[in-house]
Amino acid sequence: MKLTKPGKVSIIIVGLFISTLWLFPMWDIQLGAPQYPDGLSMQIWINDITGDVDIINGLNHYIGMNTIHKEDFKEFVYLPITMMVFILLGLIVLLLNRKIYYYIWTGIFIVISLVSFYDFYMWEYDYGHNLDPNAPIKVPGMAYQPPLIGYKKMLNFDALSQPHIGGWFYLLAGVIMVTMCYYEWKKSKTVAL
Amino acid sequence: MNKLLKYALLVFSTFTILHSCKMKTTESVVTGTAATKAYVAPGEYDEFYNFVSGGFNGNVSVYGLPSGRLLKMIPVFSVFPENGYGYSEETKAMLNTTAGQVPWDDQHHLSISMTDGEQDGRWLFANANNTPRVARIDLTTFKTAEILQLPNSAGNHSSPYLTENTEYVIAGTRFAVPIGEQQDVPISSFKENFKSTISFISVDKDHGSMNIAFQIILPGMDLDLSRGGKGPSKDWFFFSTYNTEQANTLLEVNASEKDKDFIVAINWKKAEEYVKSGKGKKMKVEYAHNTFDEETQQAYSKIENEVTVLTLEDYKDMVYMIPCAKSPHGCDVNPTGEYIVGSGKLAALIPVFSFDKLTKAIAAKDFEGDYHGIPVMKYESVLHGEVQKPGLGPLHTEFDGNGNAYTSMFLSSEVVKWNVESLEVLDRAPTFYSIGHLCIPGGDTKKPWGKYLIAYNKITKDRYLPTGPELAQSAQLYDISGDKMELILDFPTVGEPHYAQGIMASVIKDKSVKFYDIAKNKHKYVTMGEKNARVVRTGNRVDVYMTAIRSHLAPDNIEGVYVGDEVYFHVTNLEQDWDIPHGFAIKNNPNAELLIMPGETTTLKFVPQKAGMYPFYCTDFCSALHQEMQGYLRVSPKGSNVPLRFGIGESAPGVAVK
């Protein structure tokens, strides 16, 4: 069945929203401690990490955490490619103009999102658990896995992890797609064959 | 019997009443709101930076107002072992003079750079009295950037004072001395041979670099405090003088003979034009010029050997003398630039001169004679008026921007507030004790901030807890925003403040450098990164390229150094964050320590005299593992064949089997 007008428009909107990932960071991590009155922060982009990365790396070596370098992340190559392909697929869906393709397209989005979050979680796990055995400061049983999302206290640091502007647009895109799928499906029930 | 009783009662009651008459003490001088006015709550900032001269400690101290808290000591003319100033290879040259490296001086006065008569907070100029020099301090780094020695001068007290737009820093000599080739003359030949010199130091608009543009030679007398004109009088400079009697001995008596000395008015703009047009002679004389280059992080000392000099024959219409009562100490120009206040320290009045009247009198040639060829103005023709019975011993006047003047009275130990136009005395506030100078932030510029006044006193006695015979100098902070002056804080100061400058914190605080960008470090011996840490021998000179980062010094094991070697530790602080300095010191080094800021490279020299083991370590608490930040230098006897080896961790000598 053909897509509704709102359905077709939503593909454009979703494409634009996902494009913001190239303009704004996806994710934001804030760190606070008494000795850092201005706070420390790190922004994760679709293809980069910015913020107080050098200072955080300097602090990390005390507790044996790995240093963070842009070059270490293959994700910064795969993710931009994946997103560009996804947007192109959206345009193809728009041309083919069939509801079924829209449902598949949304499904692909959900899979990409789940894989991304899982990857982020695994990276944070490794980063927080895989510590240098010769680290100067060793707190028995302590792991420094940053929160996937939300607040956590680690030693003298408060950590807050949340989506940044690009991330919010991405999530919003997902919400639009899922809502549109339901709308399309509802509409398909009421249209005369 | 009755009479006797009455008499006894009378005597008894008199004594009781007299005993209960107490004189006013401080408790009754301070009102209830003083505490809140002087209090700066934790986490809040002071409103003003207060740069205070160190006097006989040779440095400049920085206080916050209104809290009176000491924020920093800036080393300028004295060695400062605390951070290695004057000891490190990079800063030694700053204290170089034609008499060698001079480790101390007497720092009296300060001036903050101005643009159009308003403070711009770029540089702070400071004078050295004993070995005449002027320093320029960079107010983004709070470090001494340049020191220029002054030839033909002695007792550089009348210094440093600025023209309205910081075109020149002016420095006048206190002592008249013989200048030129023949200086070995009898002291009693003062009148014939001794001269007074005023140096005009040009300041580069962009970089601040100083150079002596020209000097003016005056007949021998003592020059005292001076001020640049403002607004209408901006092309002029005014000096107070004393000992125009030209005495060379027992000045206490002989220099106080004449009823009036002078204020010397100099049209510096005309002098500048004369020099440009080729007037004046080039005189051969040596003086040191030291500059700290921020890029290479190194001080360079150069000996200049020539100066342009203007003498009496050159200037016919640029110097005039205005009679001023009794050995004036101070000479201050009000914010509009119209009034010039002379403070005769032995006088019982304050004369106020009018610039408008001065220019008219000069045009009308209204002179009453001449002083060694310099025209002397008729006192009444230039006078605006005299402040009558202000107090005893006026020294220094500043202004609040509301038409009021505040003069310090050394002998009557008070600050007197008076109106510049009407010459009426409006208020008096006692100081504890014997005020020398006072400071109103911006009070010597076109735009004073008329909120606070600080009195810098010469006698402390019982103001604070006693600390043996040698006491800190006392200072009092007054709120002058109302009609009457209100004492709000009493605080001790370091060294002996002679003068101070205050500036609104917002002008400086956001430009303050937090740390140095290591990518911009062009020091000759910088070590970019720990992998480049190494030790290099050239003959009997050993250069240690060392890095410091939390929490280790690299290399931290060094062998193969011999007795008598000249060892240079070049330590680079690799940190790139706020407030992470590292220190460096090595055992038995007759030298000071180093404090290295993030991104900096600093060098400490060590010449070991005995074979043995010399630990070195970081002296500034930098991290949780600061105590672990250490190393060893092995010194072997001269001629031994211990090879030069160095390293840290796995690369330390002896760990790896070679």
Describe the model.
The complex is a heterodimer of chains A (193) and B (658). Chain A is an alpha+beta fold. Chain A is 54% helix and 16% strand. Chain A has one domain. In chain A, strand 1 and strand 2 form a beta hairpin. The model of chain A has no long low-confidence stretch (mean pLDDT 87). Helix content of chain B is 9%, strand content 44%. In chain B, the strands form ten sheets. In chain B, strands 6, 7, 8, 9, 10, 11, 12, 13, 14, 18 and 19 form an eleven-stranded mixed sheet that branches. Chain B is globular, with a radius of gyration of 29 Å. The model of chain B has no long low-confidence stretch (mean pLDDT 92). Classes of the chains: A alpha+beta (193), B mainly beta (658).
Biggest β-sheet description of chain A: 5 strands, antiparallel
Instruction: Name the quaternary structure.
Output: heterodimer
Q: Which secondary-structure class do the elements of chain B indicate?
A: mainly beta
Summarize the main sheet of chain B: 11 strands, mixed
The computed structural class of chain A is: alpha+beta
Which overall shape of chain A is indicated by the principal axes computed on the Cα atoms?
elongated
Overall pLDDT of chain A, averaged? 87
Quick summary:
The complex is a heterodimer of chains A (193) and B (658). Chain A has helices at residues 5-19, 53-63, 75-96, 99-129, 165-190; strands spanning 27-33, 36-44, 49-51, 150-154, 157-163.
Task: Set out the fold topology.
The complex is a heterodimer of chains A (193) and B (658).
Chain A: H1 5-19, E1 27-33, E2 36-44, E3 49-51, H2 53-63, H3 75-96, H4 99-129, E4 150-154, E5 157-163, H5 165-190
Antiparallel strand pairs in A: 1-2, 1-5, 2-3, 4-5
Helix pairs in contact in A: 1-3, 1-5, 3-4, 4-5
Chain B: H1 2-20, H2 26-29, H3 34-38, E1 48-53, E2 60-65, E3 69-74, E4 96-97, E5 100-101, E6 107-115, E7 118-128, E8 133-138, E9 143-149, E10 158-162, E11 168-172, E12 177-178, H4 190-193, E13 194-203, E14 210-219, E15 222-228, E16 236-242, H5 251-254, E17 260-267, H6 268-276, E18 281-293, E19 298-310, E20 319-325, E21 328-333, E22 339-344, E23 349-354, H7 355-363, E24 367-371, E25 374-377, H8 379-382, E26 383-388, E27 394-399, E28 404-409, E29 414-419, E30 425-430, E31 435-439, E32 452-457, E33 473-479, E34 486-493, E35 500-504, H9 505-508, E36 534-538, E37 541-549, E38 552-554, E39 557-562, E40 566-573, E41 582-586, E42 594-596, E43 601-606, E44 612-617, E45 630-636, E46 645-647
